[in-house]
Every structure is written in C-alpha cells, then in structure tokens.
Amino acid sequence: MLNRREALQAGAGAIAASLVPSRPAYARDRKPNLLYILADDHAGYVLGCDGNPRAHTPNIDRLASVGTRFARNYCNAPVCTPSRQSFFTSQLPHSAGVTVLETPLSENKPTLARQLAASGYAPAVFGKMHFNVPGRPGLHGFATACTEDVVHREWTKAAGPWPDYPNIPTKPKQWRPFRDPARIWLDAGKLPFDRGYEHMEGTWIARQASQFIRTHKNDPFALWVSFRSPHSPFDFPIEDRNRYDPATFPVPGLGPNDFDQIPLIFRDLTPTDKQGIIASYYTAVAFLDRNVGEVLHALQSAGLDNDTLVIYMADHGYSLGQHGRFEKHVCYEPALRVPLMFRWPGRIPSGQVIREFTESIDVPPTLLELLGAEPFAVNHGRSLAAYLKTGRDPNPRQTIFTEYLENEEACVKTDRWKLIHCTGRRLRRDGYLTGNPLPGRYVELYDQQSDPAEFTNVAGKHPGVVQHLSAEMLRVFRTTHPDAPAEPAGLNPDSALDWYLRPRDAKPSPDFPCEVSSSARVPAP
Q: Which residues are bridge partners to 126 per DSSP?
C-alpha cells in the first residue's frame, strides 16, 4: 500500500502526464535538453556562492560551482511582468510592450518557446510566468503550459485537506497586501505556511518538473521550472519555522535623505519587524533552494546531466530594508542585481565566475546560440557565448540599462556611476506612495565607488557625467523603442527622456494593485 508521500508523487506523475500533449514525430539527431529554472524576487546578494554566509543555498551554490556564474547580472525591469516578458522575447520592456505589472504579453510577440518550437522542441512550463492570462496548451509557444492558475488548481487537488497545527502559529488564511499592515503581509512574525514540505505548492511544482524529466529522458526537452519563492509573503513549510533567529539579522541603516522617500506602507515597521521580515525572506530562499535541488536531482538520476543546458536566474532582486524599503520597484542596487548561472558539463567551464556586466536580456541570444536555434529577428541582448567558451568577451558591456515605467524612471549604470532619471509626474499605482506631492522631474547620480549604498546624490557636482549618461539612456530608447519615429521634434534631452518614460500600456486605473503571487489558500484580490 502506498504511503501519503508515494501517493502524492504518483498523483503528480499522472497530472504531469495528463498535461503533456503527445509530441510530434520528426527525424533528427538528439538535441541537448534545456532546463530553465526561474526564481521570483531572488536577490543576487542572498546566495552562499555570492559570499553571503547567512544564505542557505547549497543546491544553487553547487550548480554555480560546476558551471559559470555571472556575478554582475542586472535585470532590465525591477518588477515581475516587464522583466519576465523582456527576457522571454529578447526585447527591452518598452519594446516588448509590457512595462507595467498587469499587462499581458501580446500573442503576436516572438518568444523563446516559439523559437525553440521552430527548432524541433515541444517547450513546457511548470510554474509562474506572469502572462496574466489562463494557462492553455500552445500559450506563447508552450506545448505544455502549467502556469499559475493551472498550478494552483492542480496543487490544491493533489495536496488534499488542510492539516491542523493547533500548537504552531501559522500565516493568516488570506494574504492581503496593502490592506493589512506590512508587518502582516510581509510576515514579520516569521510564521510558516500551514503545510509541511511534502504538501507545499513549490514542492508540487518541483515534482511535476521532475516527473516530466523522467518521462522525457529519451526525448530532448525544453523545460521551464518557475518557482514563486521567495516572493512575499515568503512562504516556507512548517519544518523550516526555526531555521533562522530574526534577532541575528542586522537592519540596514538609512541614508540622510531616505526617510521622506520611504513608502508610507513601511513607515511604521519597527526594527524587530524588519528583522522578522528579513529572516522570513531568507527562510523562503532556503525552501526555494531545496526545490531547486529536487529538480537537479531528478535530472541527474535520469542520467541527463551531460545532455542538458541548465540555466538558473531570477526575474529581479529585492530590497530587505535598504533605504527603508521591502520590495523591488526602484533602481537601487538590491532590486536590480540578480543571480545568473549556466551549467553544461563538458561544454561550459566549471567554477568560472564572470565579473563583467551582463543583463538579463542577454540570456535569450545566449540560450538560442548554445542550442543551435534560430536567433530572434529583433534582439536587444548580447550573447554571452564567448564567456562560456573562452572565459572572456572582447567587447564587454560598459553600461547597464534598467527601466521602471510604473514610476516613469530608468537608470544607466557604469562601473563607477549610476544615473536615475524620473519624470516625477506620475501618481504611481503600485502601492508604494510616499505621501509627498509629485516632485516633478529629478535626476540622481551616485558615485558607487565612494558611496556603494547610494545615499548621496552628487548630480549637481558632476554635470558632465549626468550629460553623458543621460545621452546613453536616450540612445537606448531611440534605438529600441517602437515609437522612436514619432518622437516630437525639438525636445531637449531631458524632455525627450520624459516622453520615452511614459508607460504606453498602463491603464487609467489599476486592476492589479499588487503582485498576486502567493500560494495562500485564498489568493489576494
């Protein structure tokens, strides 16, 4: 007789099989597999292999140790939907047509899944993709599209009745961001989700992916495994509730000009609250790492390590008290730097760390080149294949570009400087209002060599640097924005940047006041 774990695993296999359509037959030599693992809100600094001794990430660290890690990789948008659809289409967010959270990706856009389908794969995804439409076979090129709504429905059925933990405090039954105080929806109490590891949604996703690998071991696959962790409310299982002592985490200090720009929602957080939130986030990262390990173990057990290109990355980073914030949605460093690593034994150097600039938009052309698929007709990234073949690129990136158009801001970063340009004219609809009047246009310049925390705006002292980086930002927009031919004549550079920073896909009122990305039993509205 099967025990409960075996029954769940058997049920997961049956569900995975039912979601996978029959694969078309075609004559070809064996292609390499693709395993593309995505995390949600995993900041690049919360990794053991990045030098953080508090981060419990042994499986991800091991992946990095036998592959190549890009230690200075930056997202192109510090928010889920624009970032994800950017590196799914190989176009910067303003070109992909997705610059705010609620926008669905156009069915007409080329995608990585479609490129790989044209090369003979039947791409599959299990987990969060933020397409903002229901999952269905064929969605954006995925033959199997077990996205958020499908995951939640099937996991709920597979996990069974909710257990009772009478002596263990657990999370509220509803996740209510912005309606409850931040200390509750950001889990300052470090409360576990009321499930054990075997019955967590993230575990279900890992096991669906593992079953997919086992059933396709003789038929090369392109598989996306996209976890919700460690996104708030930082879900982790009952077993992990005592992993960290919140009191051991220091609270980041504030800069001299930080208080007025702290969103109102965070203003009443106490130091103890902040320590609890940080500890919850780190615990959620540890839970994520365990699930990543399950998928990698399935790959190894199937004997497919040497035949599979593995990519691990996140959509964007996360602020854990820096500048008084607990979110992304800004152009400060913690929200922008994200993990990126590639592994392919015998094809990609082992243990290599690249410390030159890369952007998440560089992943699509790299992936397609390594797999021998056709490149995109429109491609805003740069292939990293040279790094993966020789350890160096003769023409490395000198700047990083990121945009957050919900607040009509963008930044350009070099080794020393970071410039942020914001119109200051948009009443942002992401929930992070400061209570201050709209400031109008402002420019911030940070000397990251002398001020790595980005506390002191030195734009007034270095007008030449501001002019140079503003021109670089404008160049990016003018060479990639689909509306560039319609730029009004006679605009000065600042006004031209303001014109490009408008989110063309934004609606007059928000349908998605926050990111609904929890495995809570009752999703937030």
A: 146, 225
